[in-house]
Amino acid sequence: xxxxxxxxxxxxxxxxxxxxxxxxxxxxxxxxxxxxxxxxxxxxxxxxxxxxxxxxxxxxxxxxxxxxxxxxxxxxxxxxxxxxxxxxxxxxxxxxxxxxxxxxxxxxxxxxxxxxxxxxxxxxxxxxxxxxxxxxxxxxxxxxxxxxxxxxxxxxxxxxxxxxxxxxxxxxxxxxxxxxxxxxxxxxxxxxxxxxxxxxxxxxxxxxxxxxxxxxxxxxxxxxxxxxxxxxxxxxxxxxxxxxxxxxxxxxxxxxxxxxxxxxxxxxxxxxxxxxxxxxxxxxxxxxx
Length: 289
Known about the structure:
The chain is α/β, with parallel strands linked by helices. 46% of the residues lie in helices and 13% in strands. Strands 1, 2, 3, 4, 5, 6, 7 and 8 form an 8-stranded mixed sheet that branches. Helix 1 packs across helix 10, helix 2 runs antiparallel to helix 7 and helix 6 packs across helix 7. The model has no long low-confidence stretch (mean pLDDT 89).
């Protein structure tokens, strides 16, 4: 019996490009995807799949782009922290542009252009597969599930990493990266009607070297995130009566903004599907060659 399979794609910055490899491999294996939900980079890749984009072509394009230059981020956590501190000082004096009515912060323009390209400028009502993007309300801390309007606007909100990108003003809220409250949106696809779920976890590992106070601070955030994700996995497995497969592509060594490893991340996603294809096919109730 064929189950209604949902796909939940987590965050992870450059590591999250593994989601593209996962989606390509699932397509090639003929695994049906009844609904999709994504957080952060998972939202970007899930939205592209939802509109029926040519994922192989997107992979080729992304491999040729300098995403660090395009998004104006570096692969150095320290340099990004220095930029955040400098920007915050300027905003303290001049005020925050993202809080101005009808403003579109400069740092979000390129991000939006990229995601409009990936989603062909389509709206949620245009999707071929039901899709949801997850963001977080900056002021209340609530999870916000986006399912209306332009896909690219929802994806920008879902990927707006605090401090790196400005919060996104939407419907009276300021939205930020959904990974703050929901690293792996399995509950969202269950609520959309999924009877079985393939979840892709590209979160940061806990085995990073810790030698500075900054490392300790980042490790504390990773520990909190991992604890939350593990709790969500237990609850989701109970809701699905065990009909859950969690893929963890081998991307833990890739730093959040190390987009020079795009090809490696995509390949890791494909390999994760290949390693679990029999179990995935059984979960979906289909045969694969």
